[in-house]
Amino acid sequence: MRVFITGGTGLIGSAVVAELLSAGHSVTALTRSDASAARAEAAGAAVLRGGLADLAVLRAGAQQADGVIHLAFSNDFSSPEALAHGIAEEGAALAALGDALVGTDKPLVTASGTPCVAGRVAIEDDPLPTDGPVAGRSRSVTRALDLASRGVRSSAVRLPRTVHNEGQGGFAGLLADIARRTGVAGYPGDGAQRWPAVHARDAAVLFRLALEKAPAGSAWHAVADEGDPVRDIAAVIGRRLGLPVESVPQENFGSLGPIFAADQPASGARARAALGWQPTHPSLLDDLEKIEA
Fold it and tell me: At a CB cut-off of 8 Å and minimum separation 6, what does 119 contact?
Protein backbone atom coordinates (compact mmCIF):
# COMPACT_ATOMS: atom_id res chain seq x y z
CA MET A 1 0.00 0.00 0.00
CA ARG A 2 1.21 3.54 -0.78
CA VAL A 3 0.76 5.47 2.45
CA PHE A 4 0.82 9.24 2.90
CA ILE A 5 1.68 10.28 6.45
CA THR A 6 1.74 13.60 8.26
CA GLY A 7 3.92 13.94 11.34
CA GLY A 8 6.13 11.12 10.13
CA THR A 9 9.35 12.34 11.74
CA GLY A 10 8.17 12.82 15.33
CA LEU A 11 8.51 10.35 18.18
CA ILE A 12 5.35 8.47 17.17
CA GLY A 13 5.53 9.11 13.45
CA SER A 14 9.07 7.83 13.03
CA ALA A 15 8.01 4.58 14.70
CA VAL A 16 4.97 4.35 12.41
CA VAL A 17 7.09 4.91 9.29
CA ALA A 18 9.49 2.17 10.36
CA GLU A 19 6.59 -0.19 11.06
CA LEU A 20 4.93 0.48 7.70
CA LEU A 21 8.15 -0.02 5.76
CA SER A 22 8.96 -3.24 7.61
CA ALA A 23 5.50 -4.53 6.68
CA GLY A 24 6.15 -3.91 2.97
CA HIS A 25 4.23 -0.66 2.50
CA SER A 26 5.73 2.38 0.78
CA VAL A 27 5.57 5.72 2.57
CA THR A 28 5.49 9.37 1.54
CA ALA A 29 5.97 11.76 4.44
CA LEU A 30 4.83 15.37 4.63
CA THR A 31 7.88 17.40 5.70
CA ARG A 32 8.16 21.11 6.37
CA SER A 33 11.91 21.58 6.89
CA ASP A 34 15.12 20.37 5.29
CA ALA A 35 16.02 18.59 8.53
CA SER A 36 12.75 16.63 8.70
CA ALA A 37 12.99 15.80 4.99
CA ALA A 38 16.47 14.40 5.55
CA ARG A 39 15.22 12.28 8.48
CA ALA A 40 12.32 10.91 6.46
CA GLU A 41 14.53 10.03 3.50
CA ALA A 42 17.11 8.41 5.78
CA ALA A 43 14.32 6.24 7.20
CA GLY A 44 13.37 5.09 3.70
CA ALA A 45 10.34 7.31 2.99
CA ALA A 46 9.69 9.56 0.03
CA VAL A 47 9.06 13.23 0.80
CA LEU A 48 6.31 15.71 -0.01
CA ARG A 49 7.26 19.18 1.13
CA GLY A 50 4.68 21.25 2.99
CA GLY A 51 3.04 21.90 6.34
CA LEU A 52 -0.40 21.43 7.88
CA ALA A 53 -1.49 24.83 6.61
CA ASP A 54 -0.76 23.82 2.98
CA LEU A 55 -4.17 22.31 2.25
CA ALA A 56 -3.60 21.86 -1.49
CA VAL A 57 -0.44 19.87 -0.75
CA LEU A 58 -2.34 17.70 1.73
CA ARG A 59 -5.08 16.97 -0.79
CA ALA A 60 -2.53 16.03 -3.44
CA GLY A 61 -0.70 13.71 -1.07
CA ALA A 62 -3.92 11.97 -0.09
CA GLN A 63 -5.16 11.63 -3.67
CA GLN A 64 -1.92 9.97 -4.77
CA ALA A 65 -1.95 7.44 -1.91
CA ASP A 66 -3.77 4.20 -1.16
CA GLY A 67 -4.20 5.27 2.45
CA VAL A 68 -3.45 8.14 4.83
CA ILE A 69 -2.22 8.32 8.42
CA HIS A 70 -2.50 11.71 10.10
CA LEU A 71 -0.26 12.38 13.12
CA ALA A 72 0.98 15.96 12.78
CA PHE A 73 0.15 18.54 15.44
CA SER A 74 1.85 21.76 16.48
CA ASN A 75 2.36 20.57 20.09
CA ASP A 76 2.58 24.21 21.20
CA PHE A 77 1.12 24.26 24.71
CA SER A 78 2.77 27.56 25.68
CA SER A 79 -0.56 29.40 25.97
CA PRO A 80 -4.29 28.81 25.46
CA GLU A 81 -4.08 30.88 22.27
CA ALA A 82 -1.23 28.80 20.86
CA LEU A 83 -3.07 25.59 21.68
CA ALA A 84 -6.27 26.87 20.05
CA HIS A 85 -4.36 27.84 16.91
CA GLY A 86 -2.80 24.39 16.66
CA ILE A 87 -6.16 22.70 17.09
CA ALA A 88 -7.77 24.86 14.40
CA GLU A 89 -4.89 24.22 12.00
CA GLU A 90 -5.11 20.48 12.55
CA GLY A 91 -8.89 20.51 12.07
CA ALA A 92 -8.60 22.19 8.67
CA ALA A 93 -5.82 19.80 7.64
CA LEU A 94 -7.77 16.70 8.64
CA ALA A 95 -10.84 17.98 6.79
CA ALA A 96 -8.74 18.47 3.64
CA LEU A 97 -7.32 14.95 3.87
CA GLY A 98 -10.78 13.48 4.37
CA ASP A 99 -12.34 15.42 1.50
CA ALA A 100 -9.66 14.09 -0.83
CA LEU A 101 -10.64 10.50 0.00
CA VAL A 102 -14.45 10.79 -0.20
CA GLY A 103 -15.93 8.01 -2.32
CA THR A 104 -12.70 6.01 -2.58
CA ASP A 105 -13.13 3.54 0.33
CA LYS A 106 -9.47 4.20 1.15
CA PRO A 107 -8.35 4.24 4.78
CA LEU A 108 -7.81 7.43 6.74
CA VAL A 109 -6.31 6.81 10.18
CA THR A 110 -6.06 9.71 12.57
CA ALA A 111 -4.87 10.08 16.14
CA SER A 112 -6.85 11.26 19.12
CA GLY A 113 -6.62 10.88 22.88
CA THR A 114 -8.20 8.40 25.21
CA PRO A 115 -11.14 9.97 27.08
CA CYS A 116 -11.36 10.54 30.81
CA VAL A 117 -14.34 8.78 32.41
CA ALA A 118 -15.18 9.44 36.05
CA GLY A 119 -14.86 6.42 38.30
CA ARG A 120 -13.80 3.77 35.81
CA VAL A 121 -11.49 2.73 33.00
CA ALA A 122 -12.30 4.29 29.61
CA ILE A 123 -13.16 2.13 26.60
CA GLU A 124 -13.73 2.87 22.93
CA ASP A 125 -17.51 3.24 23.39
CA ASP A 126 -16.89 6.30 25.56
CA PRO A 127 -17.15 9.59 23.64
CA LEU A 128 -14.30 12.03 23.30
CA PRO A 129 -14.58 15.20 25.43
CA THR A 130 -16.73 18.00 24.02
CA ASP A 131 -15.46 20.65 26.43
CA GLY A 132 -12.09 21.61 27.88
CA PRO A 133 -8.84 22.76 26.27
CA VAL A 134 -8.62 19.98 23.65
CA ALA A 135 -12.31 19.64 22.74
CA GLY A 136 -11.63 21.03 19.27
CA ARG A 137 -9.45 18.04 18.47
CA SER A 138 -12.30 15.74 19.50
CA ARG A 139 -14.67 17.47 17.10
CA SER A 140 -12.18 17.14 14.24
CA VAL A 141 -11.73 13.42 14.86
CA THR A 142 -15.49 12.89 15.12
CA ARG A 143 -15.97 14.58 11.75
CA ALA A 144 -13.30 12.31 10.27
CA LEU A 145 -15.02 9.20 11.60
CA ASP A 146 -18.32 10.44 10.19
CA LEU A 147 -16.73 10.23 6.73
CA ALA A 148 -17.47 6.51 6.94
CA SER A 149 -20.89 7.39 5.51
CA ARG A 150 -19.21 9.08 2.53
CA GLY A 151 -16.98 6.27 1.35
CA VAL A 152 -13.91 6.74 3.52
CA ARG A 153 -12.62 3.87 5.68
CA SER A 154 -11.84 6.25 8.50
CA SER A 155 -10.64 5.16 11.92
CA ALA A 156 -9.04 6.72 14.98
CA VAL A 157 -6.25 5.38 17.13
CA ARG A 158 -6.76 6.88 20.56
CA LEU A 159 -3.42 7.49 22.20
CA PRO A 160 -2.87 7.73 25.95
CA ARG A 161 -1.36 10.92 27.34
CA THR A 162 2.06 9.28 27.46
CA VAL A 163 3.48 7.68 24.33
CA HIS A 164 7.09 6.98 25.24
CA ASN A 165 10.37 5.71 23.86
CA GLU A 166 13.73 5.63 25.64
CA GLY A 167 12.25 7.51 28.59
CA GLN A 168 11.00 10.39 26.48
CA GLY A 169 7.61 11.56 25.24
CA GLY A 170 4.10 12.45 26.39
CA PHE A 171 2.97 13.69 29.78
CA ALA A 172 5.71 11.76 31.58
CA GLY A 173 8.27 13.44 29.37
CA LEU A 174 6.75 16.82 30.20
CA LEU A 175 6.94 16.00 33.91
CA ALA A 176 10.63 15.21 33.49
CA ASP A 177 11.24 18.47 31.59
CA ILE A 178 9.43 20.46 34.28
CA ALA A 179 11.43 18.66 36.98
CA ARG A 180 14.71 19.59 35.32
CA ARG A 181 13.59 23.22 35.04
CA THR A 182 12.18 23.62 38.56
CA GLY A 183 14.39 21.27 40.57
CA VAL A 184 11.38 19.29 41.84
CA ALA A 185 9.77 16.12 40.45
CA GLY A 186 6.28 17.39 41.10
CA TYR A 187 2.77 16.07 40.60
CA PRO A 188 -0.63 17.68 41.16
CA GLY A 189 -2.85 16.69 44.07
CA ASP A 190 -2.13 13.48 45.93
CA GLY A 191 -0.70 11.81 42.81
CA ALA A 192 -3.17 8.93 42.93
CA GLN A 193 -4.61 9.88 39.53
CA ARG A 194 -3.70 7.30 36.88
CA TRP A 195 -2.25 7.91 33.45
CA PRO A 196 -2.36 5.25 30.73
CA ALA A 197 0.68 4.78 28.51
CA VAL A 198 2.07 2.94 25.50
CA HIS A 199 5.48 2.51 23.92
CA ALA A 200 5.75 4.33 20.59
CA ARG A 201 6.75 1.16 18.76
CA ASP A 202 3.69 -0.68 20.09
CA ALA A 203 1.45 2.22 19.10
CA ALA A 204 2.98 2.10 15.60
CA VAL A 205 1.82 -1.49 15.18
CA LEU A 206 -1.75 -0.49 15.99
CA PHE A 207 -1.65 2.34 13.44
CA ARG A 208 -0.59 -0.19 10.82
CA LEU A 209 -3.31 -2.64 11.80
CA ALA A 210 -5.94 0.12 11.67
CA LEU A 211 -4.70 1.14 8.22
CA GLU A 212 -4.86 -2.43 6.96
CA LYS A 213 -8.11 -3.69 8.43
CA ALA A 214 -10.01 -1.41 10.81
CA PRO A 215 -13.69 -1.04 9.88
CA ALA A 216 -14.94 2.37 8.76
CA GLY A 217 -15.90 4.66 11.61
CA SER A 218 -14.08 2.66 14.30
CA ALA A 219 -11.90 3.80 17.22
CA TRP A 220 -9.15 1.87 18.99
CA HIS A 221 -7.25 2.43 22.22
CA ALA A 222 -3.48 2.14 21.89
CA VAL A 223 -3.10 1.43 25.60
CA ALA A 224 -0.53 -0.99 26.98
CA ASP A 225 -0.39 0.29 30.59
CA GLU A 226 -3.93 0.84 31.83
CA GLY A 227 -2.94 3.48 34.38
CA ASP A 228 0.13 4.25 36.48
CA PRO A 229 -0.35 6.59 39.48
CA VAL A 230 1.30 9.92 38.69
CA ARG A 231 3.21 9.87 41.98
CA ASP A 232 4.83 6.60 40.87
CA ILE A 233 5.84 8.22 37.59
CA ALA A 234 7.22 11.23 39.44
CA ALA A 235 9.07 8.95 41.86
CA VAL A 236 11.04 7.33 39.03
CA ILE A 237 11.74 10.73 37.47
CA GLY A 238 12.93 12.14 40.79
CA ARG A 239 15.18 9.17 41.50
CA ARG A 240 16.71 9.21 38.03
CA LEU A 241 17.30 12.98 38.15
CA GLY A 242 18.33 13.12 41.81
CA LEU A 243 15.50 15.51 42.69
CA PRO A 244 12.93 15.66 45.50
CA VAL A 245 9.48 14.26 44.71
CA GLU A 246 6.48 16.15 46.06
CA SER A 247 3.00 17.43 45.37
CA VAL A 248 2.87 20.88 43.79
CA PRO A 249 -0.09 23.17 42.95
CA GLN A 250 -2.02 22.25 39.84
CA GLU A 251 -1.52 25.81 38.60
CA ASN A 252 2.21 25.10 38.25
CA PHE A 253 1.40 23.10 35.13
CA GLY A 254 -0.34 25.96 33.32
CA SER A 255 -3.07 25.19 30.82
CA LEU A 256 -2.37 21.45 31.16
CA GLY A 257 -2.98 21.50 34.92
CA PRO A 258 -6.58 20.24 34.80
CA ILE A 259 -5.59 17.41 32.47
CA PHE A 260 -2.55 16.50 34.58
CA ALA A 261 -4.78 16.31 37.66
CA ALA A 262 -7.42 14.04 36.10
CA ASP A 263 -7.71 10.33 36.77
CA GLN A 264 -7.84 8.86 33.27
CA PRO A 265 -7.13 5.11 33.07
CA ALA A 266 -8.04 3.42 29.79
CA SER A 267 -8.24 -0.09 28.37
CA GLY A 268 -6.66 -1.43 25.18
CA ALA A 269 -8.38 -4.80 25.40
CA ARG A 270 -10.58 -4.30 22.35
CA ALA A 271 -7.65 -3.73 20.00
CA ARG A 272 -6.00 -6.87 21.31
CA ALA A 273 -9.11 -8.96 20.79
CA ALA A 274 -10.37 -7.57 17.48
CA LEU A 275 -7.20 -6.58 15.63
CA GLY A 276 -4.70 -8.96 17.20
CA TRP A 277 -2.59 -6.14 18.63
CA GLN A 278 -0.01 -7.36 21.15
CA PRO A 279 2.20 -4.78 22.91
CA THR A 280 5.68 -6.18 23.48
CA HIS A 281 7.89 -3.21 24.39
CA PRO A 282 8.82 -1.85 27.86
CA SER A 283 6.18 -0.38 30.16
CA LEU A 284 6.31 3.30 31.03
CA LEU A 285 7.86 2.83 34.46
CA ASP A 286 10.54 0.53 33.02
CA ASP A 287 11.21 2.90 30.14
CA LEU A 288 11.59 5.87 32.48
CA GLU A 289 14.60 4.11 33.99
CA LYS A 290 16.44 5.32 30.87
CA ILE A 291 16.03 9.00 31.80
CA GLU A 292 19.35 10.77 32.14
CA ALA A 293 20.04 13.79 34.34
Answer: none
Could you list the residue range(s) of the whole structural domain that residue 39 is in? Answer: 2-162+198-224
Helix H or strand E encompassing 67:
strand 67-70
The answer to whether residue 271 is domain-embedded is no
The H-assigned helical ranges of the chain are 11-22, 34-43, 55-63, 80-101, 135-146, 170-182, 200-213, 230-241, 257-260, 269-275, 284-287
Instruction: Tell me the average confidence (pLDDT) per consecutive run of 10 residues in the chain, 293 residues long.
Output: 97 97 98 96 98 96 98 76 82 96 98 93 94 82 97 98 93 94 96 97 98 98 98 98 96 86 97 98 97 84
Looking at the fold, whether 240 and 182 belong to one and the same domain comes out as yes
Give yes or no: residues 149 and 15 share one domain: yes
Q: Are residues 145 and 119 in the same domain?
A: yes
The answer to whether 198 and 268 have CB atoms below 8 angstroms apart is yes
